[in-house]
Amino acid sequence: MTEAILLVGGKGTRLRPLTVNTPKPMVPAAGVPFLTHQLARARAAGVEHIVLATSYLAEVFEPHFGDGSALGLHLEYVTEDEPLGTGGAIRNVASRLHSGPDEPVLIFNGDILTGLDIEALVDTHSASGADVSLHLTRVEDPRAFGLVPTDATGRVTAFLEKPQTPEEIVTDQINAGAYVFRRSVIDTIPTGRPVSVERETFPDLLADGAHLQGMVDSTYWLDLGTPQAFVRGSADLVQGRAPSPAVPGRCGDRLVMPGAVVAADAKLTGGTVIGADAVVGEGARVEGSTVLAGAVIEPGAVVQDSLVGAGARIGSRTHLVGAVIGDGAQVGADNELREGVRIWCDAVLPAASVRFSSDQ
């Protein structure tokens, strides 16, 4: 297998305000756009040609990655005029593929951080003679995901979307967002309209008697769809819990990008990333957080499990816990922002305007 389709067209609504100015796959994780990690892992598995299915802020991708030669890849870009869903996006780029009808094509979502053994998935696909093979992973609470039960041989028996009652939860196996398609199967997806592979393509194939094979791979897996998950994923990359050949430096407790200035007594822990040209002042503490390029953490501030957008400023003695600060926002001194708080891009929060009591 030498080619793949990467689905990077989503709007990243759950990640706002991070995705107001930047498409989700281009938000930095462990110092580089998240997409870089996916491309590097695909290349390490032997993929040479990747078609990016783009839509939202599509103009951002090609100027950064170009033709892919810097990563040892051949990249092409196809932009949807209107959002087509996962299946529609796959079908929309099919003309750029070079594979023969029976050859495998890898397809993966642009917001999944995973340690998947890509070569093993392709081998499973070939050995089983499947029309489509799916990466499956096991989760403790599958209610937010699509369940994929399989028989004793790994053959998929059903697709159950987001079950809610105990009776509906018949397995802990979920669709993990990476697939291998027989090339000819892609051509059966309808054109010119939105199609969901999860809700339409896969169930229809199963109903028509197609062979869909599941491969359970329970290595590292994380859906980066929320800010909290994105921050955690970045920290896991820095600390080496999530594998990637694209992390720009040694794995450890912190990653400081070129041009950043960190005071000698500032403490950076928990897989924290300090972006290029960012500043961390005296006595500041940054734990398990991502501080993007050009941001400023003023003296004495505490930033925990949070994401601080590019060019944002966090005032002295301000305390962030599980917060998201948009690009260019300014949070004044002596504020306290806790779990779930999001400050929009370029917003200004005056000094000492928000404070949580100790029992909140």
TrEMBL record:
Organism superkingdom: Bacteria
Q: Domain Nucleotidyl transferase: where?
A: 4-237
Give the matching Pfam families: GMPPB_C, NTP_transferase
Q: Where is the Mannose-1-phosphate guanyltransferase C-terminal domain?
A: 252-354
What CDD domains does UniProt report for this protein, alphabetically?
NTP_transferase (cd04181)
PANTHER family registered for this protein in UniProt: SUGAR-1-PHOSPHATE GUANYL TRANSFERASE (PTHR22572)
For this entry, the protein name equals GDP-mannose pyrophosphorylase
